[in-house]
Amino acid sequence: NAGVTQTPKFRVLKTGQSMTLLCAQDMNHEYMYWYRQDPGMGLRLIHYSVGEGTTAKGEVPDGYNVSRLKKQNFLLGLESAAPSQTSVYFCASTHSDYEQYFGPGTRLTVT
Amino acid sequence: AQSVTQLDSHVSVSEGTPVLLRCNYSSSYSPSLFWYVQHPNKGLQLLLKYTSAATLVKGINGFEAEFKKSETSFHLTKPSAHMSDAAEYFCVVSTYSSASKIIFGSGTRLSIRP
Among A52, A47, A50, which residue's Cα sits nearest to residue A63? Predict the structure, then answer.
């Protein structure tokens, strides 16, 4: 039982490049989330999903897209990376009681 | 509307002394409250949670928190700090009204002095 895994762990992009972050969970959770963590700001919700085939915007969705084609996977895409998107990205999944299980994070640097 | 405020951005205590990390919340509904811990370069791990059962909640590693509705607080305590407790701590509030209504505090960095 791996829990929540994230791929890749680190990435450096140049401005304007695109990339996809993969989140996978093996706990059969319905809800999945993408957050970004910046110093002094806690975690901010980018997008979330309440089930396979559904996605919704969170607090800071601009510049990101997501897809949930399979229940166990939640993809976060950056179409045209900007330096403001330099951050640590965390994926989480949960049962309905909202106790979240987090992945180890992806550290992204955009130059 | 929901919000959560962690009253201290940094707390420093000596090893073996008590720890108090303060959290106040605001919620239109009956909230669920959580404390998570994040060690350096790691993901977040659940310490404890309150979901309308007992108001005094015990968590892992000797931590506990008390839900006080009248004070809208959910402070995290530990009787005796250990060096391994040095980490970032996040207070989180959520309700059942919407999956997106999970609000994180800005975090409190706990340092432990030898």
Answer: A47
Task: For residue range B100-113, list pLDDT tens digits in order.
Answer: 678 899 999 999 99
Neighbour count for residue A82 (Cβ, 10 Å): 12
Report whether A78 contacts A61 (CB < 8 A).
no
Enter the tokens of residue B48: 């404890």
Is A56 in Cβ contact with B104 (below 8 Å)?
Answer: no
Strands (DSSP E) contained in B1-114 are 3-6, 10-14, 19-21, 23-26, 32-38, 44-50, 56-58, 64-68, 73-78, 87-94, 102-104, 108-113
Q: How far apart (Å, rounded) are the C-alpha atoms in residues A38 and A26?
A: 27
Q: Where are any strands of DSSP class E within chain A? A: 4-7, 10-13, 19-25, 31-37, 43-49, 56-57, 64-67, 73-78, 87-94, 100-102, 106-110
Which chain B residues contact residue A100 at CB under 8 A? 34, 36, 44, 46, 102
**DSSP, res B31:** P
CA distance A71 to A85: 26
Neighbours of B94 (CB within 10 A): 27
- B37-90 pLDDT, tens per residue? 999 888 899 999 998 778 899 999 999 999 999 999 999 999 999 999 999 999
Q: Does B29 reach chain A within 8 Å, measured CB to CB?
A: no
**Other CB atoms within 10 A of residue B41 CB:** 9
